[in-house]
Amino acid sequence: MANFYTDIPELKFHLNNPMMERICELKERGYRDKDEFDYAPRDLDDALDSYDKVLEITGEITAETIAPNAEGVDAEGPRCANGRVEYASGTRQNLDAMVKAGLNGMTMPRRFGGLNFPITPYTMCAEIVAAADAGFGNIWSLQDCIETLYEFGDADQHARFIPRVCAGETMSMDLTEPDAGSDLQSVMLKATFDEANNCWRLNGVKRFITNGDADIHLVLARSEEGTRDGRGLSMFIYDKRDGGVSVRRIENKLGIHGSPTCELVYKNARAELCGERKLGLIKYVMALMNGARLGIAAQSVGLSQAAYNEGLAYARERKQFGKEIIQFPAVYDMLATMKAKLDAGRALLYQTARYVDIYKALDDIARERKLTPEERKEQKTYAKLADSFTPLAKGMNSEYANQNAYDCIQIHGGSGFMMEYACQRIYRDARITSIYEGTTQLQTVAAIRYVTNGSYLATIREFERAAWSPELEPLKPRLVAMADKFEAATAHVKETQDQETLDLAARRLMEMAAGCVMAHLLLQDASRAPELFGRSARVYLNLAEAEAAKHAEFIARLSAADLADYRQA
Q1: End-to-end alpha carbon distance in the chain
Q2: Nearest-angstrom CA–CA distance, 119 and 27
Q3: Are 205 and 250 in contact (CB under 8 A)?
């Protein structure tokens, strides 16, 4: 692949979405930076052209450096020596190329050395990088931790840390511990205030920390002595330059080998408070995790693209029984389904990113001036949409990445089980996406309230009012029928007034909602660009329709006796 951006026209389609006009207007504050920075855009076309050029550079580096290094990095991996991480040689080359191209701190304001990019084009860069090497994607894309520091840190912290990230220094978020994985309110890393040196000291152990030997860390720690829940936790900034943290070991993982997943030991490590005490989990980690979940959704789409590329190329080359295997229905069925899931998941990813862009830009403006009543309403609307769509984007795309990687190996047959084919690395790398930054089960927990309060259904019904091309308009009654099934299934579960029944049905309800949303988004895209999305839209509608019917049937039959059977399992 010559360029991981220009060779995927679907990306440029999403970059040119009509919502980008509002996003750019807000992010650029009416393009005011043009008088101070010669590289700042002057208008919408200039901004989109800038994003396009940076995406092309990212695609070029990905094709020429990151992708060729991927197999070597997977084999070599990082190593731990004297309490420090040493990256694989290919990882060092990748980082050097990205830093020289100025692809760090992309979303940060220009006054700190950033590019002031919206989340949407940055997320596209993350997808592109992940399509070549998901492990390296983890290291590079953790730069988005700086969003949390920018949002909640003070002006002095902004001035000291943000330029370093824009210049290429790495970041990590140190949340989980040996006894606190998904249950972050159980975090016990101790933070005590050092009066003599006017700083905080951190003591304890963190585990499963991605890129754990990074330059700058955001750390969740217990600042309130005697507490045991989330109200006693605060967020801290740890600077590697100050010492006090060592890497005990690097985990031996199934996949994403290039990304060092570390166990860290904090010994009286100097740190500083980020934001206010006691809000570490309640406010700051929630913001941090939502950004991370969007990042894993992008990584998942990148892996889905990689799996589809490998499967398609092999199916076109491999001959059996006198013809290419892509000509067999059993194979082209898998490929068409893979592409439909990829296109649907990507549509959901970038719709979510655009929602995030609008509410975050308005949040940032609110730190400069009071929002107008219209702006406050807009901010509230898009914050809710972003919050509701994020678990769908992360949950569904991570599942699709796993499914596409599985089918990629299946298309390869016995060859796919051999280590010399890239599909086995993609398969191993994809597996973690439905686990870290909140399992699919936890995404369901985050999503289910938007099922029961009617938010998803209201959004779907609003989508039904959108105009489609005349060729696709006859398909709309099928989507309406899908939404009717979703509405009936939700009502059936709510009528039981039983929490356990809701918990058992939750995953299926979430998937019904997501299927309706993605089918609508993909058909909207197909109306604008039938040459890119027409086939996928029709294939995905068939798939989503069948899944909705299956889930509706299950939920309609759900009874108290069934609950007892599932508990026995």
Answers
A1: 47
A2: 10
A3: no
* Spatial separation of the C-alpha atoms in residues 280 and 540, rounded to whole Å: 41
Any bridge partners for residue 180, and if so which? 177
Both structure tokens of 352: 């979510």
User: What is residue 117's three-state secondary structure?
Assistant: coil
Calpha distance 430→403 (Å, rounded) = 9
Average pLDDT over residues 500-522: 97
3-state secondary structure 41-68: CCCHHHHHHHHHHHHHHHHHHHHHHHHH
* φ/ψ of residue 459, rounded to 5: -65, -45
The residue written with tokens 């009654």 in the block is: 477
Q: Which two tokens stand for residue 256?
A: 């994403």
Query: Full-prediction pTM beyond 0.85?
Result: yes
The per-residue pLDDT for range 301-354, each reduced to its tens digit, is: 999 999 999 999 999 999 999 999 999 999 999 999 999 999 999 999 999 999
Whose CA is closest to 554, among 456, 484, 488, 455? Answer: 488
pLDDT above 70 as % of the chain: 99
For 19-39, how does the pLDDT look when each residue is reduced to its tens digit (9 = 90+)?
A: 999 999 999 999 999 999 999
Matching residue, tokens 């994607």: 137
Around 98, how many Cα atoms within 13 Å sit in the side-chain half-sphere?
A: 31
CB 57 within 8 A of CB 104: no
pLDDT of residue 563: 79
- Structure tokens belonging to residue 200: 């905080």
Burial readout 22-39 (b: 16 or more C-beta within 10 A, e: otherwise): bbbbbbbeebebeeeeee
Under 8 Å between Cβ of 518 and 344: yes
CB 288 within 8 A of CB 145: yes
DSSP structural state of residue 102: T
